[in-house]
Structure formats: structure tokens, C-alpha cells
Amino acid sequence: MGNQQGLGAMGFCYVPYHFVYDVSFPALIQIYDEDELFQFPVAIIIDNNVPREAVFSELSLEEEDFDLCQYPTQAVDVNLFDVNLDRADGDVSYECFNQKCRLGETRNGRIVGSVPACVNGFLHVRAEGFADKKQLFSSNSEGFADVVLDRARQVEVELVVGGIDFSGTAVASFVRDDSESYTFAFPQSDSLTISEGSYSVLVYAYGNSTLVIPATTKTQCSEIPRGGLLGFFGGTEEKCFDINIPETKIESALIGGGNAKVYILDSELERGGLRLNVERFPTPNSLDELSQNFELFDTKNIDFEFYDV
């Protein structure tokens, strides 16, 4: 609680402890599939609360003067298509170790070039009228790549809360399975540009609130080591802290919404309109009721309705 929209204003409190310690222990890392196993040990060393810094070689990727793109040793042939397998043109780059090397623009949907040798790198494609595409590509073992681009569609978005067209403040978040995210804010926006794919969707609807959290003072006590010789032998004492929480007014509270996982087809987006139907919650008059609304949010679904524009 506290990270969600509407609860961030409530704040939090903590008691700081300043321990200084050294820790050293081994860790075994394993990477495996059904038939093969690769494992290696590493030493975890903490010195005075600070991780020991690794010593990098002259070719360390952490050095600012190292440019991986200066070593394009692998030939690649990249072809771009739309969902109908018609050729499409776009700008292609290759990412390896957080460095991105630009290949250039395709011609008639194809580009031939060279990239650094890399395991589990990514091809990045940007093309007008299409959603950005990120595709896994190991240039050390692959020389050809076919990339299918999803058409980016602009759709008008409407929100219905509790069976009534909603005109207040709301936020809808669309997170695609490749971590691309799209956010729509009511009533500032009236359309959204997304592409076909699998999405996790969250819809938060807010209403005016007069909920006031009164100022309070808490006393929190903790056992801490005693000073001097008694502390060395495990002696402790109780120390108490006064924590002052100022009065807080929550002007906007969660009154509706839901979440869902859905696969959206391009043929649905092509219709041009999307109506999101969510349930309405009781208007909270206390902190407990506000908390209950967030618990309700986790259990409520979203109904998607596409329509022709």
C-alpha cells in the first residue's frame, strides 16, 4: 500500500539504523535446459557496507571510451515485412551490451550490413505507420533475420464506469508482453495509438474526495545495543522515537476500475473505436474504505468493446 495512485499522499515512516559490516560468501549460478547445464561460482564481497568493485580489463564495456560498434565483424541480412508478408521499409539498429549500433534504412524491405559479434543481442526496428519492434538476434550464430512489423492503429477510446459514460479523471495503462507500454489519460486525451499484441491493461477511475487523514503522533520503541562494555556482551536498551504525521487531504480517490490480460487483434483496432467498461466502487469516506477500493480493484475485470468509427 502507498505506491498505487491515490495512496501516495499518505506517506510512511521508518526508524533508521546505521550498521557497518563486512560480508563475504560464495554464490553458484546455474543456467540449464532439459539437456544441458552450465554453472559457475562467484564471490560476493561487501566491505564496510559497500560492494567491492570489480576490476575490468582494458576492453571493459564499462569504460566510456569503448565503442562496440567499431568492431562490426558479423555480416547480417535483415528483411522487414508487415503482417500480410508485404515488404516494409524502416530504420534498423542492433543492440548489444547496452550499446546500439545503427545499420541504416532498408530498401525494398531489406538491408545487408555488419554488426558486432554478440550473443542474445536485439534488432530494433522503427518504421512509419508501424509499432516499434525489438527482436532477439544472436549475431555470432545467425546471419539472416525476418522481422514482421505490427501496424500501429489510432483508436478513439471511451470509458464507461458502472454503466455510465465517465467524464472525470481516469488513467488507462496498456503494457505489451515485450514491455512496451502505452498510457491514456481521461479527459486530456481522446485517442490512443497501439498495435496488435498481448496486453496487461489497468484502468483507474478517480472521483472528488473530502477524505482527510488527521494529524497524528506515534511513539515507536525499539531495542538497540547498549553503549560501552554491556553492549559488547549483548546488552540492549529500549529507545523510543516520536513520529509526527501531518494532516493530509486526499482530493482524488479511486472510485472504479479493473485489470485484465487480453490479446488485441489488428482487425479489432482497424474498426477505430474502443470502449472500456469497468465497475464503479463506493465513494470512500475513510481510510479503510479507500483501502477496500484498492482491494476491489485487484478482483475486477475490464470489458473491451470495439466499434466502427
Describe the structure.
The chain is mainly β. The protein folds into 3 domains: 68-148, Immunoglobulin-like; 152-212 and 248-308, Immunoglobulin-like (Sandwich), CATH 2.60.40; 215-245, no CATH class. Helix content is 7%, strand content 54%. The protein has helices at 228-232, 266-269, 287-299, and strands at 23-32, 37-47, 50-51, 74-81, 91-96, 99-105, 110-115, 121-126, 133-137, 144-148, 152-161, 164-165, 169-176, 181-186, 191-195, 197-213, 216-225, 236-245, 248-264, 272-280, 303-308. Strands 11, 12, 13, 14, 15, 16, 19, 20 and 21 form a 9-stranded mixed beta sheet that branches. A 4-stranded antiparallel beta sheet has the order 6-5-8-9, with no helix packed on it. It has a 3-stranded antiparallel beta sheet with strand order 1-2-3, with no helix packed on it. The chain is flat.
Summarize the structure.
This protein is mainly β and 309 residues long. Helices cover 7% and strands 54% of the residues.
Looking at this protein, list some descriptive labels:
309 residues; 3 helices; 3 domains; Immunoglobulin-like; mainly beta; nine-stranded mixed β-sheet; disordered N terminus; 54% strand
